[in-house]
Amino acid sequence: MKNLIKKIGLVLLGTFVLTSCSDDDDNYDKNVYNIVAKDADFSNLKAAIDKAGLATTLQSSGTFTVFAPSNAAFTAFLQANGFASLEQVPTATLKEILLNHVLSTEVKAAQVTTGYVSTLAKGAASSSRNLSMYINTSNGVKINGVSNVTKTDIDATNGVIHKVDAVIGLPTIVTHATANPNFTTLVAALTRNDMPNFVSILSGTANSPFTVFAPTNTAFSGLLTELNLSGLSAIPQATLENTLKYHVVAGANVASTDLTNNMMVTTFQGGKFTITTTGGAKITDAKNRVSNIVATDVQCSNGIIHVIDKVILP
Question: Where in this chain does the record put each FAS1 domain (predicted)?
């Protein structure tokens, strides 16, 4: 009888222990950090968060959206940037890269739309303006042209996690130009084989920060019609080079809040144009042609982009 009672007691004790463990597992605080910590495919991300000192941030109350890179994504990132391990990544740089994966508002998969959002990261161009992220939903969800969302809506108590297949580096002017399909003609112009190495210039830090007034594809189509040219290749080399440089201001991160009426702007090309703000921000170029600034403040790590609806000419 005593042995039977002992056996029953042991069974009940075991059941209690198993139930308690199960309850603990079900009831732990499922904040962003804890979810990452429990997912084997986020072990590199957890290590990065710990190294960057962001664990407390991602455990705190909030409404975060986190685009979480997989282990394979981190491995590819380290290899592409010449790091033998995560420990070789400078902590300050790693912190901003991780924050570049985080939004301050919770965005579920059904709410994701094409366009720009602001991350929690900052770059060298501005200590006060957060970096922009471009989300393209035309074929799945692609971020900054480099990272695809592979799993969505991992719910957390302080937000939501979406898994991605690539680490999202700090975006340069070139990153955002190439990510947005509305700039394909601009990119084609910048990379035409008889142009200076604009990709190197606008992705680098020499002469930065840059302010770029970026014409849309429609703006370029309008220019070709205006000049009676058959295509981009028909624009003379000197004309195209000077025109592209005329859209760039070097050494200044000029946000929309910095624009003033009758503001005279000196460009990377050396020429000037005038900005007016009455009735909406506009540019009057050297040939007295007017272009509207139709979107503003795409913040990059080495500058800022404003979108215009007409190519301006020096």
Answer: 29-168, 170-312
